[in-house]
């Protein structure tokens, strides 16, 4: 390696050290903010735990010397009381601090959940759809709550490392008495110290290398473990159970699952093979150092240089010194590698919200006079070079019903996402009452919309909570919304009424609803909100023809005088809308009423209408 390369490597290590120290300073600040004195409790708990054995070593040695020496009852009683009483006090204090720390640990776990929940709720919707963000989120969650890394490693390892350093100091202090008694032997004492230091160093070094190999192995398979857990989750998801059984996907999924196990097993086998020599060498060095200490202190005791109690004190101190150094070195390595997890942890928490949230309040208008205009709007999804929408210009006629139709992939759903600001335009502007919607307060702007997405979601809450989206709600309003969406009979059949829990995720008595029933509940939720804009993305896709017909008959009652945008690829379902926009390949290619659009026999609407109509007009062969 050239001198220039060595300098670069040295600078890289220094930079990494600074970065790791910065991460831990930040983590400690977060810990102090979220859990108060938790870290302080852990540190004192570890110091007491490490100090307790040395208390026993020192007083046991005094007690042994007194038994073999003058046998003063007064001193024997004093040493016994101090040995037992002091040890008891130290243990009681340690247990007390452990109990307080356990309570703080539980609180920290809850707060960690809240940290992630707040971050995810405040994150731009567009970021949630990115695969990179999803992968990072899954990895951070696994590290934090399953592998117990990030703050958990810091909470466990840093206080213990401090305790190990205290233990090293106490070991040296107890050994000093023996070394002072052997100073007359000059070279012999120096040789003993050098051999002892060498043995301690080799033992600790081997333990450190073994820990490093294990940490690197664990790091290399952690992403694969996340993938393995993803495969395992498929087996317990009843939503996927039908496809797994019908298409006999079990063998394929088990093969994928076992593939992840094989990768992990190979990595673990290789890690074990490499660790064995270091573990053996470390144990041998430790035992050899303790044996050497027994020999030297035994000779010193026979020569009258030290007492039998002093010999015991010395050998036990050497053993504890080795243990503290080995443990401390391993912990330092664990903390070093945990810096990478902390880096990922804070990368997730630091992801900025790129959407401008705005601060202008949305005027609360009783007349619902909100006019929204698309002005040459184009949009590309993050990471894509292809425009999902291109140069869309239109405005909504307040209180009217608009249908947006087109083939799959024509940009209809993207149009809805831009309208309710789940994304911002790549080019052009969207304005409301003449003001760019990005200037409005984000949450107030969202309150203007009731939306039923094509991939709508219900939650394992009560029926009333799913419709009202709140714990406290007006039952009459919820019942009215359910009635308008055609769920009167369903509600009447439920023994618990609006308190009926949907699905069985959290309640064994929950009710499973069909796809059509779920869609009607989603419609009721949109109706109950009472927002001035109603956006319906394929709102009857899961309904049978009769249920769909009933919904269309009640459509005016459902949306009343609100501005409504109805998206569908079923042409027959939008005839009740006086205004129809036709999308094709991301562009709005036509707009008008059904009658006017049908007059253009060369237009896209006519093509789509006639293509679907033939299935209803052709006679079977």
How are the elements arranged and paired?
Elements: H1 3-35, H2 38-68, H3 73-122, H4 125-128, H5 131-145, H6 151-181, H7 187-235, H8 238-246, H9 250-302, H10 308-349, E1 372-380, E2 387-395, E3 401-405, H11 412-419, E4 427-432, E5 435-436, H12 442-446, E6 449-452, H13 463-468, H14 475-484, H15 488-493, H16 515-529, E7 533-537, H17 545-553, H18 555-559, E8 563-568, E9 579-584, E10 587-592, H19 594-599, H20 604-617
Explain what you see:
This protein has 621 residues and is α/β, with parallel strands linked by helices. The protein has 3 domains: 20-349, ABC transporter transmembrane region fold (Up-down Bundle), CATH 1.20.1560; 372-458 and 531-616, Rossmann fold (3-Layer(aba) Sandwich); 459-512, no CATH class. The chain is built from 20 helices and 10 strands. It has helices spanning 3-35, 38-68, 73-122, 125-128, 131-145, 151-181, 187-235, 238-246, 250-302, 308-349, 412-419, 442-446, 463-468, 475-484, 488-493, 515-529, 545-553, 555-559, 594-599, 604-617, and strands at residues 372-380, 387-395, 401-405, 427-432, 435-436, 449-452, 533-537, 563-568, 579-584, 587-592. The strands form 2 sheets. A 6-stranded mixed sheet has the order 6-7-8-3-9-10, with helices on both faces. β4 (427-432) and β5 form a beta hairpin. α7 (187-235) packs parallel to α10 (308-349). The termini are far apart.
């Amino acid at each position: 390696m050239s001198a220039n390369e060595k300098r670069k490597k040295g600078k890289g290590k220094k930079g990494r050290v600074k970065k790791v120290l910065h991460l831990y300073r930040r983590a400690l600040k977060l810990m102090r903010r979220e859990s108060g004195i938790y870290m302080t409790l852990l540190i004192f708990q570890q110091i007491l735990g490490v100090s307790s054995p040395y208390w026993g070593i020192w007083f046991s040695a005094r007690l042994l010397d007194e038994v073999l020496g003058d046998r003063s009852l007064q001193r024997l009683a004093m040493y016994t009381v101090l040995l037992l009483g002091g040890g008891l006090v130290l243990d009681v204090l340690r247990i007390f601090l452990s109990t307080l720390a356990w309570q703080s640990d539980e609180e920290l776990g809850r707060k960690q959940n809240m940290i992630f929940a707040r971050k995810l709720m405040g994150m731009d919707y567009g970021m949630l759809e990115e695969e990179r963000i999803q992968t990072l989120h899954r990895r951070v969650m696994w590290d934090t709550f399953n592998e117990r890394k990030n703050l958990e490693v810091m909470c466990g390892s840093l206080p213990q490392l401090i305790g190990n350093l205290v233990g090293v100091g106490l070991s040296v202090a107890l050994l000093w008495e023996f070394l002072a008694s052997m100073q007359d032997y000059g070279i012999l004492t120096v040789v003993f110290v050098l051999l002892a230091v060498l043995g301690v160093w080799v033992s600790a070094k081997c333990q450190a290398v073994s820990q490093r190999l294990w940490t690197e192995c664990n790091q290399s398979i952690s992403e694969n473990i996340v993938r393995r857990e993803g495969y395992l989750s498929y087996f317990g998801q009843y939503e996927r159970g039908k496809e797994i059984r019908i298409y006999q996907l079990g063998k394929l999924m088990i093969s994928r699952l076992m593939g992840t196990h094989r990768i992990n097993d190979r990595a673990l086998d290789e890690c074990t093979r490499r660790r064995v020599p270091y573990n053996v060498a470390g144990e041998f060095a430790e035992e050899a150092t303790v044996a050497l200490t027994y020999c030297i202190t035994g000779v010193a005791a026979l020569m009258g240089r030290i007492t039998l109690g002093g010999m015991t004190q010395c050998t036990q101190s050497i053993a504890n010194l080795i243990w503290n150094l080995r443990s401390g070195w391993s912990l330092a390595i664990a903390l070093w590698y945990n810096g990478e997890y902390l880096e990922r942890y804070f990368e997730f928490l630091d992801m900025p919200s790129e959407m401008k949230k705005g601060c202008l309040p949305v005027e609360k208008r009783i007349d619902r006079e909100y006019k929204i205009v698309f002005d040459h709007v184009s949009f590309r999804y993050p990471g894509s070079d292809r425009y999902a929408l291109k140069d869309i210009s239109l405005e909504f006629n307040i209180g009217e019903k608009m249908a947006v139709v087109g083939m799959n992939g024509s940009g209809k759903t993207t149009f809805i996402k831009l309208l309710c600001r789940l994304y911002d335009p790549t080019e052009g502007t969207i304005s409301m009452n003449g003001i760019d919607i990005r200037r409005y307060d984000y949450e107030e702007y969202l309150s203007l919309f009731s939306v039923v997405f094509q991939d709508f979601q219900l939650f394992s809450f009560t029926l009333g909570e799913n419709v009202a989206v709140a714990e406290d709600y007006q039952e009459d309003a919820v019942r009215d919304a359910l009635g308008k969406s055609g769920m009167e009979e369903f509600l009447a059949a439920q023994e618990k009424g609006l308190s009926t829990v949907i699905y069985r995720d959290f309640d064994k008595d929950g009710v499973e609803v069909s796809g059509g029933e779920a869609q009607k509940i989603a419609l009721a939720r949109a109706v109950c909100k009472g927002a001035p804009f109603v956006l319906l993305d394929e709102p009857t896709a899961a309904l049978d023809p009769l249920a769909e017909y009933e919904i269309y008959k009640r459509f005016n009652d459902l949306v009343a005088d609100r501005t409504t945008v109805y998206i569908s690829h079923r042409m027959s379902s939008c005839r009740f809308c006086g205004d129809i926009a036709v999308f094709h390949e991301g562009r709005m290619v036509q707009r008008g009423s059904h009658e006017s659009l049908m007059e253009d026999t060369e237009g896209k609407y006519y093509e789509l209408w006639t293509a679907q109509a033939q299935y209803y007009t052709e006679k079977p062969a």
